Amino acid sequence: MALSNRQARWLLLGPAGLWYAMLLVLPLAVVLVYSFGERGAAGGYQPAFTLAQYANLATRWTAFKNTLMLAPLGTVAALLIAYPLAYFLAVRVNPRWRTLLLVLVIVPFWTSILIRSYAWIFLLGGRGIPALLADLGLGDWRLINTPFAVLVGIVYGYMPLMFFPIYVSLEKLDRKLLEAASDLGSPPWRSFVQVTLPLSLPGVATGSMLVFILLMGEYLIPQMLGGGKVFFVGNALVDLFLQSRNWAFGSAMSVTLVAVMLVVVTLYMRFLKRIGAAREDVGLM
What we know:
Elements: H1 5-35, H2 52-55, H3 61-92, H4 95-106, H5 113-124, H6 129-135, H7 147-171, H8 175-183, H9 188-216, H10 220-225, H11 233-243, H12 247-284
């Protein structure tokens, strides 16, 4: 018996849709319901309908401020480091060495983020880079347990996620376009701005969203390199759910974080869409 197009569509999308509903929609719905409740006498959740948890969000403003400041800053920093590296490997380097260099970029992912964070604790601690700077007569620097240490850790940890989408976009770039631009008298910098950069924007958009979304929920790096002094929302949520056992307040913070991420990602996608539309208009002129 042949299936209609509609039946075939539901048959293909049904398992994925059910999986999506059970592992994403349903947990979010539970968190949303909990966010309107209250903390039980012994902790946990007590059914209620109140906005008190959302009214108390200002008490955790520091966690939101650090997250909203360091997550975009870390995303931009990772982009500024990953793009030149991806451009060099995809466009400039000899193909015979490309695979080896790509493996070297992947190698840090073979080690636990916990071990890599401990390595940065040593490097940024008193016996690491600060001691070297002091020996060179450059003053007494304190790097560990600062926003700078957290920024270094998140850029180092998430840079490969930014690198590979950009590399794929650049690796697929048609070299004939660059040759044509050169033949028409375009200098290298103009060819990059008008040809290479626009064609690599999909990779930039994908890498930026991957890094930004993950950084908004980051917990381990601020905990280890921030020393409890640079809190992200993820650290606050761990405290509320596991230490204070205030599930209602933790749920309200979680819902607020998801809402902020949705707004930022939506604005970012609209911005990219406008850039694409502007490029098409210029191309038609």
